[in-house]
Fold this protein.
Amino acid sequence: MTTQNIQNFQETIDHVSAESEAPLSRPESPENSENFEPEIVEENNGAFYHWGSKAFPQLQISENGKTSQLFRYFGEDYLTGLPTRDNIVAENDECLSVILNNALDKREEIPFMAVDFEGSSEKIGKKNHYILHLYGSLINSQKAVVTLTGIQIFFDILVPDNESVDGFKIRIDEILCNTVNNYKIEHINAFPLQGYHIEKKSYLRIFTLGSGDRKKALQAIQDKNFETALDDMFSFHCKIARENGIAISGWSIISKYRYKKHSHYTHDFQVSINDFRPVEDLKIISDRFPISALMRDRTLILTWDIEIQSRELGEFAEIHDE
């Protein structure tokens, strides 16, 4: 790859967050579209349910003859008659929404707590780029989605002891130029992950734009029996989060963001990976955001076992030791 191509590759990575129109959240499904018309579906038992932005109750008759109300909900709108998240936030606000909105109006740094995340390769302009979506809450407990852009994805190739870096780089370049269109090669020194070593070894770090190209390049290199590192093929989003120090269930700070507020369900932010950082010490931002709010745990984790179920609504399952 020529020097000019390497420069163009780096500019593509560096400027994607500022000039692109990357999705502000996960790709929109038909149900999320403003023009989506909900569909009413009839089941075989004659019951109706709503698929879309609203849902309404049905009468459920259990085996003991009791009648109860059952909601079938498949959309993302609020259910009539039930408290919304915004209602709960308003009851426990303590002026936090005013502080948050003032910061948003001025495009100042704001704290965000991620509790879940996922990654995907998405087309921005004419090229694929790796995007990380973080889901969590803001200082006042309102939901937020933070889309991280400008992420560099890579893997490493160990330079054999009997080869020079420049000579090995030529061999790798010949393999990759027939495999992927856009890549960059850098020489680094690092300790191998396995075994005990007193000196660093030479590696070639291979950067690609999307996870698909990374997978192709990695497979091509491994087919030649070269030793690779940082070569996770699955749960790739966890690798990205680990390498970039992204905190899960901890406060982070976002700055220089693009922002959009949906009408009733969440805040959307798009920010470069370089402008997203964990908060090491809460006292650093306590002059702008109350320390009492920052120390309050805003996470709720629900778990279930799909193998446990009850026969009737509202009844606990009986566990038999077999």
